[in-house]
Amino acid sequence: MVLGAPPGLAPGPNVGGPGAFDVKEQHMEQQGVRQRRTPPATLGPMLGRARLRTGLRGAEAARLVGISRQYLVRLESGQRCPSVGVAEALAEVLRLDKEDRAELMAAAVTRGGMARAVGVVGSGGGSPS
């Protein structure tokens, strides 16, 4: 039995061999399947330090952001990249400065799991107080 690419996907050279085009990855992207990104090594520790600076316990920070405590642990331990919405909420709750906010938003993923476009880092304005 010969396996080919799903309809609408073109296989690359040496399908299944070295240098093969990753048909599964292309198919997942077309279907809108979210793929995990590896966060920058500095992101998790930065989030943990920021939370401690605000004086928030993990459970309280997670509640204010609108995420589970377990998810916050995964973010702070560098296991996950936040979505754009979670990153925006984290930046607000943790009162991140411009540089930390930029690092967080650069690591944020869109609904489809893709990295945000370069140069799209927040609104550039401060939060109303």
Short summary of the structure?
The protein is an all-alpha fold. It has helices at 23-30, 43-54, 58-65, 69-76, 84-93, 98-107. The protein is globular and about 30 Å long.
The proportion of strand residues reads under 5%
Mean pLDDT: 76
Annotated CATH architecture of the domain at 43-107: Orthogonal Bundle
CATH homologous superfamily of the domain at 43-107, by name? Answer: lambda repressor-like DNA-binding domains
The structural class is mainly alpha
Describe the structure.
The chain has a domain at 43-107: Orthogonal Bundle (434 Repressor (Amino-terminal Domain)). It has six helices and no strands. The chain has helices at 23-30, 43-54, 58-65, 69-76, 84-93, 98-107. The N and C termini lie far apart (65 Å).
Which helices and strands occur, and which strands form pairs?
Elements: H1 23-30, H2 43-54, H3 58-65, H4 69-76, H5 84-93, H6 98-107
Pick out its properties.
129 residues, mainly alpha, 434 Repressor (Amino-terminal Domain), 6 helices
